[in-house]
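fold-stage: in
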Amino acid sequence: MYKVLVTGANGMLGQDLCPILEDEGYEVVETDIHNLDITNLDMVRNVLISEKPDYVIHCAAYTNVDKAEEDIETARLINAKGTENIAKVCAEIDSTLVYISTDYVFAGDKNEPYLCADEEKPLNNYGLTKYEGEQAVKKYCSKYYIARTSWLYGVHGKNFVETMISLAGKPELKVVNDQKGCPTWTVELANGIVNLIKNKEYGIYHVCGGGETTWYGFAKEVFEQMNLDVNLKPCATNEFPRPAKRPSYSVMNNSGLCRDWKLALKDYLKIRIEGV
């Protein structure tokens, strides 16, 4: 039986990933800030040497995109330095590292889906620090997977789907229609990660929902699938200024690693409603 250590196990992805790994027959070691501070190299070394995992799936991250614009030091400490610490020790103990990255490593200046080998040009501090984490993984590890994902939602955390549902009763709801990406359910990402470590060669992968949409299109699909009558209006990004600049196009080619985003959303909403 292979042992997998998961960082950020209490997060939205981690809470779906850990039981899926267990169902696949892996021995899972769940860690989060209470028992593994990734910014403390000595603690990382002690925990990983003690556990000797075959795989480390590094989900822990600073994910507040807008706040990172004013506090890049904290974002960099967690996303870059923390990842460097994990990568260094994984190399020391010969563990395979799976690093969860983001579509925000790209500038959004393409008009066709990004490939894994495309140039990274982050527009915001969050994307920059996650890219720096990618660089650390590649520098220190020979056995690694970098799994870039996007527009993540799941039952265990605050996310766009739940926000839209909570706002469905408003007289009018405006949602941005000039940013394109790939909505991804945490369960789809978790299954994609399992697929990587079981079947794929080391390297960079895009593990995100298939197809593409805008935030407006995403909201529209949520309401249609739930049969909710909502006065939904498309709007431009500049109508809702945010501290962090977002790429206007961050669609990634997922090479079939995850299902079409609409099919995944249907299953998510079914589980959410029925609790099955």
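fold-stage: in (second)
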Amino acid sequence: MPLFWLLTLPLFLLATLFVMVPLWRYSRVKPDSRSFELRKSTNIALFQQRSNELEVELSAGDIDQQQFDSLLAELQQKLLVDVSPDMAAHSGQDSVLPASGGRWQLGIPLALVLLIPLVALLLYRQWGYITDVQVMDLFQATVVNAGDSEQAQELVLSLGRYAQAHPDRPWPYYFLGENFAALGMFSEAQLSYARAAQLLEPTADKALVLGRVATFMYMNSSFELTPQVQAVIDEALAINPGEISVLQLQAADAEERQDWASAISYWRLLIQASPNSEMARDLRTRIAHAQGLSAAGDEVLEGPVLEVQLSLAEGLDLNPDLRVFVAARNAEREGLPPLAAIDTTVGALPTTLELSNLNAVGPFNLASAGEVYVSALVSFAGVAVPASGDYRVLSDSFAPNGERVPVELVISRQLP
């Protein structure tokens, strides 16, 4: 049963109790001496009032003595019935103040209480957003179960059926794209995001979805910023110049092309969006490193170049957003910082990365070591420090000798 109904049913029962418990308790109460005395005093007061009225009518000549005596006797007889407990309980005559009660006092409110939610549900189905409430569970499951391939497959089927039944609604297509991405089906993800963007109004939400479209177009075009990708980027930035996903894509492309000035400008915009976040601290480090590389201009630094061919083992299914850290270290001196390092994501694999003196992260570079080894780490925590559950692979040690050396790494082993 959807969460909406699990919450609605207890609330309905609670509201019913608020009405029915007081009515039930009231229906169980029997007349006591106090209530009888109140009725008795009220009836006596009414008798006195009516007797005075008859005397006034007799004095005014409106009635004669015989009529007065007859009416007064009738009032006296009725008063005796009303003020006598035994007679009031058994007499067929009505009292001046009849006792309230009856089954209808409980039945009618109960019927109304039961009808209200039924009528409300019928009206809500007609004019409300109950279908949006029903599909919200699918959206929440997409967020909660990110990385769960089996759950993603089930959500693709459920969201696909809903999208077919409601082709004019954008968000089912967006979350369909999220699940396709989790399954590594990047072409399908791009198409789903594109359909969602077509259905959205030109707001910040559409800019966000266009950023996803551009990202997957970029990945599907072998990480090349084609004119088609740039057109989507321009459309997103025209709506929201500060769209995070677009800035991240532009920064990544500039870094890939070693256009450090552009990469730094994009990173600074990303820092402005969230200056105190962990991402901002990481970007400040990358900016400092890129500024050193940019200062070197177009100067070609001497030294070895390691061509790292990186891939996942066949059948290994990991979240495409996980970060992958690739580093070259001195094989003769353990414990030192990496000689060169670069990072990417699981979604970018398989890929070929180059490590050279341009990628130095400490006081030493690749040219300073006689023998090196290369490592690749898939980090679930998003940091370059290995932890239990991460995936890591190490190459054999080798001497680069200032040359271009190919290194093949296949990620397969999980750390205990």
